[in-house]
Design goal:
Largest sheet: 6 strands, mixed
Helix content: 25-40%
Structural class: alpha/beta
Shape: globular
Radius of gyration: 15 Å
Strand content: 25-35%
Oligomer: single chain
Length: 132
């Protein structure tokens, strides 16, 4: 999976990675709230860039379509010691699920996953059986 790294958005912020499908924020679990806001912010910018290519040169030379929001959620502890990561993930998941935010999460643990494609992936929102 080839990615653009530290991609500068028109407002001066930088997405950690831009793939063919996602604008991605890579963050330690304790900063779950930052990762959510930043990934949505970058995805919004990719839509703006794709919709107005002439207004956003040189970014539009590299982004020709909107990207989904993505979070690489990094747990720094082994799973058996990662209760805090589980709590952080639950908070992140609860907000994404409640507001049905279109976010993809790669749940990575540094002690287990050496590459992004080894991390479990969750695409949100998922269909639910409970209708409100």
């Amino acid at each position: 999976m080839g990615m653009l790294q530290q991609f500068a958005m028109p407002d001066g912020t930088k997405a950690d990675c831009i793939s063919d499908t996602h604008a991605i924020e890579v963050e330690k679990s304790g900063f779950w709230y930052d990762s959510l806001a930043q990934s949505l912010h970058y995805a919004l910018w990719t839509r703006e860039i794709a919709e107005q290519p002439e207004a956003f040169k040189p970014q539009s030379d590299q982004i020709d379509s909107p990207r989904k929001a993505g979070i690489v959620f990094v747990c720094m502890w082994p799973r058996e010691e990662g209760e805090l990561c589980t709590e952080h993930y639950a908070r992140l998941f609860r907000i994404i699920e409640e507001y049905r935010l279109p976010v993809t999460i790669w749940d990575c643990n540094w002690s287990e996953h050496l590459r992004l494609d080894h991390c479990p992936v969750l695409h949100m929102p998922q269909p639910t059986t409970v209708q409100r």
